[in-house]
Specification:
Blueprint (H helix, E strand, L loop, with lengths): L11 E6 L8 E5 L5 E7 L4 H8 L9 E7 L2 E7 L3 E3 H7 L5 H19 L3 E2 L8 E4 L4 E3 L6 E2 L29 H17 L14 H7 L11 H21 L11 H13 L4 H8 L8 H23 L4 H22 L17 H27 L5
Helix pairs in contact: 3-4, 3-6, 3-7, 4-5, 9-10, 10-11
Length: about 400
Amino acid sequence: MGDINNLGVFSYKEIEPLTDQLNGPILVRKNDTKEFFVKKCYPLYLKENLITLQKITHLNLPKIQEIVIEEGQLYLYEEFIHGKTLAEIIKSSDVMGTKAILTLTLEVLEALTALHSKGLVHRDVKPGNIMLTNDGVLKLIDFDAIRVVDDEKETDTVQLGTVGFASPEQFGFAQTDARSDLYALGVVINICSIKEYPKDQLSSDPFLHDIIVKATNLDPKNRYQSAVEMKADIIESEKRFKNTAKNAKVNIELARPKIEDEISLDSRQQNAKLSIGSFFRKYMPGFRTGQPWKMTLAIIYYVFVAIGLPGNIYEGETVIEKLLLTLEGSILFILPVLLFMNFMNFHEKIPLLNSKKNVMRGIGYSLLIVSWLGYYGLFLFVTHGGAKR
């Protein structure tokens, strides 16, 4: 471990690309052990940083199996993680409870402590680079922007990071260090809490607000100076949260469940108090994103269906005719909304539709259209002898 292996390329069989990106990650299988890994392409200038990373063994970081030089390109073979990114969880969750946010923040800080102890700065901490495995373990992934702190430099040689999460110094104002990662983590906490960037709206959660404010201060001197310091505040906030919950006679399990279970628990507690508005955002196609233009189109569509469908049914003279017209209207106007608007997130459970590849998803949607039209054609054939109404 810790060395460049020029022969590693012959030890793996490529299975499939995991994204549509050029030089994106590829799923591979090791020929001798049959284990699955992810092959990622990195710039050659990151070689020393990745060698340092490879030497770190930590639960909250992916295991680096090998680093390989192949035809002038540097490839890293790392642990294949089964799970979801935090970005996916935030997108599919109505709310994320305080307890779950504090728990996942502690685990990100554990990963950052391990990196920072070796002088490494991640520089791209964001929900898309935080994964929750199927076993409930958090992993901080993707090291395209990783660098080693150099006290002799005033700014980073290469400015990298994601807009919205990157600290001011990542845009050339100063050199990044551990405090830059803590800035990004503060942004992540705010997004987990209210799905907004701190610059747009700060979370009012009493157990998170002050932590976010300190972590995202524009001046690094006024932020947390280390992951250990921030961790101490998170632990203290977690204690206050538990005491408040006890005083309110809320049943909090003493044994820590998996992070996704905690998110589910917090969501169920919140869902017991759902308002009509939040019900629409959770279940009604067109309202779940909260985007005004989508909600406007949804309202127009629902009004159209509410007026047009009963009028069409009224044309039936007998009970059977009315039932058939109801079924036909449902197939034409209601079924496609349920199918194509991902009602109850069922697309995640359907092959092709849950693929990360645009081509595969396109095939999935095409088959969905064919199935819908075929079902409607079969209905017409059965009810009208194949003749058009």
